[in-house]
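Our consortium's second objective concerns turning raw sequence data into structural hypotheses that experimental partners can test. To show how far this objective has progressed, the report includes one record in full. It was chosen at random from the queue rather than selected for favorable results. The single chain below, 410 residues long, was entered without modification.
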Amino acid sequence: MVRPKAIVIGGGIGGLTAAVALDRRGWSVTVLERAASLQPVGAGIALAPNAQRALDTLDAGDAVRAMAGQLSGELRLPGGRRLARTDNAAAVRRFGGPVVVTHRSELIALLCARLPEGVVRTGAAATLADAGDPAVTGRPARVRVQGDEELTADLVVAADGIHSAARRELFPGLPEPRYAGYTAWRFVVPAPDRPYPAGETWGPGGAWGTVPLHDGRVYAYATAAVPPGGRAADGERAELLRRFGDWHDPIPTLLGTVDPAAVLRNDVYTAAAPPPAFHHGRVALLGDAVHPMTPNLGQGGCQAIEDAVVLAHELASQDGLGAALAAYTRRRLPRTMDVVRRSQRLGRLTTWRSRPACAVRAVLMAAAGRLAPDLALRSFDGIADWRPPEGTYASGTRGTRTAVLPKEHE
């Protein structure tokens, strides 16, 4: 029996998770990543219990849970007044696990360690040349690498990000992701001399977040309602100091610590409309390539991980590639679009600029913190409590799963 071939376009978290899941199901996988290395451009990533359970199917969930850091956090105003307190122990009780925030590089390394040598090709910019047809034996999908090399595959997983070229090729009439109305800054600083509490601070037109990581470093992020495409002439740390430098401690301290070159700035985009499907021909779209979402629920990476695990499950469960991809769309499209909408609604709350509106928001949040302390957790109901489909859990023995074989491989 010849192993079916899969090409994954994109070596981010979703693409690597898909590669691990497919490899464990008996596929021969090649990951094509345009960057020169897999050193991720990014900072922290939140992994809620739903993502941890998906990673359990790849024997990786416990490694993520071992990265759990501080178990509580606070919501404050710029002057330091506390509005509400959150408790990760309550998340464990409600959803079966904590929310883990780790550095993206650690998750990338964890996934790569579960792939055979040679699966990942870096410096390999790839584009979709032909989506292929699962109903036609002699029409595989074709991928062009660096403009002149061409590869064929039984399946292509397009995990090529928010500005996905594969999505445009498959669904040219689908609106491009739209600017969500705010930009985001992120950075990680070395371990401080004293521990900092986790939490978020909401002010007029912007928000700040501080998250201690398990290794002692601190991950910080900020958002502000500004026009898209902006860049500060004197650097992004200077821009953060102008916007947040007079907010409560430890925000000024963190800004005084960070190397200006380490501050990342990215405009936030979200899906403008649901796609007609998450697949076409022999191509499956995954993660930001098909459902970009705002970071407010911390679910962008989590949903990509879910996508990958569900896709591999359907490929092993359905009779034929076409049926498997259709089942993947049925499972993933409604769920991810719901998360997109819920994250958008929460994100809009952080962009309020009117001081009277922000005052009302503060009163409501303080009241909710006193009367319904688990209110923040309720926003994750139906999200963080997700479980993988039955039959997805790894047996611990490689090669024991049955892959879906196109007829030409039987």
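The partners drew two points from this record. Residues 394-410 have pLDDT under 50 and may be disordered. Residues 321-349 form the longest helix (29 residues). Both points have been shared with the crystallography group to help prioritize constructs.
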